[in-house]
């Protein structure tokens, strides 16, 4: 059984006081909704606050990126060990906002995935095509290429230690979410590809959908047999909306 997982990607938003309101709202709002798992990925400076407020609760926290290196002369970077020091369980890897600005490539995401799992972090690995690639019918080719780059680096047992997220670039922050049918088709295609390589990994690995997920489209997405949850950007900035989304995940059937 794959429990639903909802991940807040707060991006470069929030401050001490708005984070406090968010964490308090989330703690209260998920108290009676324990049938799903929740993660908040906050900017690095606020990991200490997430740890202080969420430790011992149902809600885990994580970074939005990390270095491939453990230490050294990498000005401005944060290592996997540093994320672990602040109690992170997860880290987002290969988000399109980092791929598009040249910070991440297929090769570097594979390396980051491996380094994260070696440090005991669970990578949330993002894949997805641009609008142009979507319109050219290249979704399958692009997502498989991105996924294979990781599999090549770490193998199926390594892959099993992470979570996957299909995030079409054209749906991120645009209000134009993929239809639940489109998302289901791609996730089923990706799971099918994994199944050929390792049926057990395919059965157990959680694959999320991300891109303009809101409280009003969440239940439909969560009802799909291959959609195991959501990676949520904009809607995680509104506590009430994000809590509603988490509750929808808890009410949905596990896949
Ligand atoms: P969005 O962002 O929910 O605002 O579309 C999703 C993401 O970037 O992970």
Structure description:
The chain is α/β, with parallel strands linked by helices and 255 residues long. The chain is 46% helix and 15% strand. The model has no long low-confidence stretch (mean pLDDT 97). Bound molecules: 2-phosphoglycolic acid (PGA).
Descriptors:
alpha/beta, TIM Barrel, 255 residues, eight-stranded parallel beta barrel, binds 2-phosphoglycolic acid
Task: Summarize the model shown.
The chain is α/β, with parallel strands linked by helices and 255 residues long. The protein has helices spanning 16-30, 47-54, 80-85, 96-99, 106-118, 131-135, 139-159, 180-197, 199-204, 215-222, 239-251; strands at residues 4-9, 36-41, 59-63, 90-93, 122-127, 163-166, 207-210, 229-232.
Count of β-strands:
8
Question: How does CATH name the architecture?
Answer: Alpha-Beta Barrel
Total helical elements: 11
Kindly report how far apart the N and C termini lie: 6 Å
Q: What low-confidence regions span 5 or more consecutive residues with pLDDT below 50? A: none
Strand portion: 15-25%
Strand/helix succession: EHEHEHEHHEHHEHHEHEH
Rg over alpha carbons: 17 Å
Summarize the amount of helix as a percent range: 40-55%
The CATH homology group name: Aldolase class I
- Rough shape? globular
Mean pLDDT: 97
CATH topology: TIM Barrel
- Cross-sheet strand order for the largest sheet: 1-2-3-4-5-6-7-8
